[in-house]
Amino acid sequence: xxxxxxxxxxxxxxxxxxxxxxxxxxxxxxxxxxxxxxxxxxxxxxxxxxxxxxxxxxxxxxxxxxxxxxxxxxxxxxxxxxxxxxxxxxxxxxxxxxxxxxxxxxxxxxxxxxxxxxxxxxxxxxxxxxxxxxxxxxxxxxxxxxxxxxxxxxxxxxxxx
Length: 161
Fold this sequence. Notes:
By secondary structure, this protein is mainly alpha-helical. It contains eight helices and no strands. The protein has helices spanning 2-14, 19-26, 33-43, 52-66, 72-92, 97-109, 120-130, 136-148.
C-alpha cells in the first residue's frame, strides 16, 4: 500500500514542472527555436486548472512557439490561442505580478501588426506599484526582468535598485 501511495505521489509531482526551473528557462526561451520548443514541451502537460502562473507560462510558450511556425495560418492560430489563454489567466488572477510580467514580456516583443501591445503601460505601472511588496526569489526574478526590459527607461528602472 505504501509503495502504491508513493508511486501515485511521484507520478503526480513528476508531471508538474518546477516553477523555479520554468523561470530559469523563460529567461532564455526567445533566444532560439530549440529553447522555445523545449519550453513548450516542458509545459505541454499543464492544464487550465493548474497553478495560474504555470498556465500563464504555458500561454507564453504557445505565443513564443507561434513565432517559429512556417505556415501563416498556423502562426496566427497559435498566436491567438496563446494570447487568449494568457488574457483568460490574467482575468482569473488580475493582481498577480508575475502573470503581468509575463504579459509585458510578450507584448514588448510581438510585432505591432498583431495588435497585442495595448497593456504595456498598465503592466509597467502594476509592476512598479507592487514590486516592493514582493519577497524572495520572485522579487529577484522581477528585478532581473525589469533591468533587462526594453519597456522600462533607465529612470524607471531605479525602483528596483
